[in-house]
Structure to design on (303 residues):
């Protein structure tokens, strides 16, 4: 379990993380989301003692991580896949890490095979592609068979097979009762992986909820309707809680009423319906709605 209490970090006059409190429960995959500059990486660095909090505290399984006698067995961490000795082979990099904890070479071989880098384990890590570097970083995180796993953008650079493997593997670890904190900008992947979501924006917690609850609270279900008599139908369905957004000619998105109700109404009025498609809100929709005012680096709209 990871517990942060009023965690704050300042760099000079800039506050990167401000009074952040949350609990990452075992037995779940917790997604850690937020725009660039939201404070996610700084928070994860504070969890494992790489940055010291300006104020507040964070513990892993009841104590600060820096007090752990066997850090690799306590927490597996992937924060920067490039943090390797570039002149060493992948196998020797892992063996050097293992030696600091008395971990046998058989475990090194296990994580090499587990992460699919067996064919390149004898090559210098500095020559690895982005995807292979990520796999090596995950192997290092798994080396001590830790109870807690913290992964920052673990699927970055992976091919579809690797992405699916990470998804299935972290869910398997959570099912064993382990604590998993996973950061990613891929909302579609996070929607398939996470049970719980913590969202940061400008260094503060914007949301801390089960994924389904977050989506329900921050999105609206819409119905895509296409009809040659759309104007009549829109007039008939109008109400104080109904919103109609025009799409292409003869097509509209209607919020605030179900597809069944629209269909029944159209049938009763003899209005033909060419399309009636319910659309449920997604994690991406919820995330964008939640962080719209917390984006520090915003791209120019394309019109």
């Amino acid at each position: 379990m990871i517990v942060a209490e009023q965690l704050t970090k300042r760099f000079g006059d800039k506050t990167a993380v401000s009074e952040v409190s949350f609990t990452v429960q075992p037995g779940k995959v917790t997604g850690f989301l937020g725009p660039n500059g939201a404070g996610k990486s700084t928070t994860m660095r504070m969890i494992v003692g790489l940055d010291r909090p300006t104020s507040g505290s964070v513990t892993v399984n009841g104590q600060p991580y820096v007090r752990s006698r066997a850090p690799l067995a306590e927490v597996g961490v992937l924060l920067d896949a490039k943090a390797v000795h570039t002149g060493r082979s992948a196998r020797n990099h892992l063996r050097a890490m293992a030696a600091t904890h008395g971990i046998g070479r058989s475990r090194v071989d296990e994580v090499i095979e587990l992460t699919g880098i067996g064919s390149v384990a004898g090559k210098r890590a500095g020559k690895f592609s982005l995807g292979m570097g990520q796999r090596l970083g995950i192997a290092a995180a798994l080396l001590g068979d830790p109870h807690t796993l913290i992964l920052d953008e673990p699927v970055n650079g992976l091919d579809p097979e690797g992405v699916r493997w990470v998804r299935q593997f972290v869910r398997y670890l959570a099912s064993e009762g382990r604590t998993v904190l996973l950061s990613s900008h891929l909302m579609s992947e996070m929607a398939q992986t996470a049970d719980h979501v913590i969202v940061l924006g400008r260094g503060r917690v914007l949301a801390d909820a089960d994924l389904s609850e977050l989506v329900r609270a921050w999105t609206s279900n819409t119905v895509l309707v296409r009809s040659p008599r759309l104007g009549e139908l829109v007039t008939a369905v109008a109400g104080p809680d109904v919103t109609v957004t025009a799409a292409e000619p003869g097509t509209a998105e209607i919020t605030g009423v179900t597809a069944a109700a629209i269909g029944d109404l159209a049938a009763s009025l003899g209005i033909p319906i060419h399309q009636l498609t319910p659309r449920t809100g997604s994690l991406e929709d919820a995330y964008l709605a939640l962080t719209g005012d917390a984006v520090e680096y915003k791209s120019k709209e394309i019109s």
In short: The mean pLDDT is 92.
